[in-house]
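G., the chain you wanted modeled:
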Amino acid sequence: MNAVWKPASWALVPVLLLAQGCGDDEKKSDKSYTVRFSPQVRQEALRCGTTYPDIGTSRGVIELLDFKMYLRDVTLVRANGERHALTLAQDGTWQRDAIALLDFEDGTGACTTGSPDMHREVVGTAPEHDDYTGLEFKVGLPPELNHLDAEAERAPLNVAPMWWSWQGGYKFVALDIRSQANESFYFHMGASGCRGSVPDGFTCTADNQATITLAGFDPEENHVVLDLAGLYSELDVNRVPNGTTDMMPGCMSGASDPECPVLFSQFGLAADGSPKALPTTFFRVR
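Predicted structure as tokens:
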């Protein structure tokens, strides 16, 4: 019997080697892609220390104070609909697992709470194709990571200004500006109505998970524009809170905050955190 089976086993060797070779080829077919984000005001780059006129319904003048945002699950979409999630580079600072922190301020001008360090892109690998035509990503952290102890976490979940101690979670978006009437006008998007504690866990009335889907995106050619003129287009940045129905300038993700529905809509969310159609006024492809 041994004499019969031995040649057959040797015959398998080239097949096994060929299979291993195919696996190596598949591995080598992965390519590094960079998804670039471009914060703007209309066609002008958004920078600290610069003022921008004609913003919102009152045609206000704004200046940037801070702008950071958590993203996750960045996915490239081929023309045939095939989807490939980026395997993010684990850089120890901005990217961890499938999560990335974007930071658009450099600590100059009125951005006094920031630092020179910036991160305007997400870098990762995906199968190499020349027909990527779409992009999808989520804004924010998943509920299972949103209520970790930031002081004990690894980057980028250890950024203190992105931790909402009173809310028991992270800010998914922290965008602060100032206008003529408001020294600070806030947009802090995160989960809302949360109760609990770090050791015991949390429940939230709205997780506020936004999924952004953009067509016409080639990672080799295009940027994702974040247009503040579009974000504030239906809002009065000079509105002064009345102290009763509106407690502070801007939106802190409160269910009854009058500024939140307009800002949430630019992320494809209703005021209660449920999904709705995404406009192309804040997020768009350039």
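The radius of gyration is 23 Å.

Shout if anything looks off.
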